[in-house]
Automatic annotation (TrEMBL):
<protein>
    <submittedName>
        <fullName>Uncharacterized protein</fullName>
    </submittedName>
</protein>
Length: 119
């Protein structure tokens, strides 16, 4: 913030616009600058307004912020999916062992039936 603004003590007011009214601290509602604070004349919409305007908050790289948020979300998703894959691999090992045991029992039962028929 410029040093010329430091003599204004009110939290809600900045330096006066050329129209003589102190510019209040406002918050942007635009998509590009959502939540970013600025000083702005309350008469900016009037015809022939001076339109005093000054950003208080630094410019943000919203695209970078969105990418960072997406990156964090993807990392969380990867972590969850990795745990699921590990769980499926463990379950697969257990099922393979059960399958081997059942296959062996089936082969033994078939052998007994064959032996019984041969007698």
């Amino acid at each position: 913030m410029s040093s010329s603004f430091t003599h204004f003590n009110s939290i809600n007011e900045g330096p006066p616009c050329k129209c003589g009214i102190p510019a209040p601290i406002r918050t942007s509602k635009t998509e590009a600058n959502w939540g970013r604070r600025f000083l702005g004349c309350i008469n900016y919409k009037l015809p022939n307004a001076y339109g005093f305007f000054y950003w208080i908050d630094p410019e943000r790289d919203t695209e970078k912020e969105m990418l960072d948020a997406n990156n964090k979300d993807m990392r969380r998703q990867i972590s969850v999916l990795t745990k699921k894959v590990e769980e499926i691999i463990r379950e697969n090992k257990v099922l393979r062992k059960k399958n081997e045991k059942l296959t062996k029992k089936l082969q033994e039962a078939e052998a007994q039936v064959f032996d019984y028929k041969m007698k």
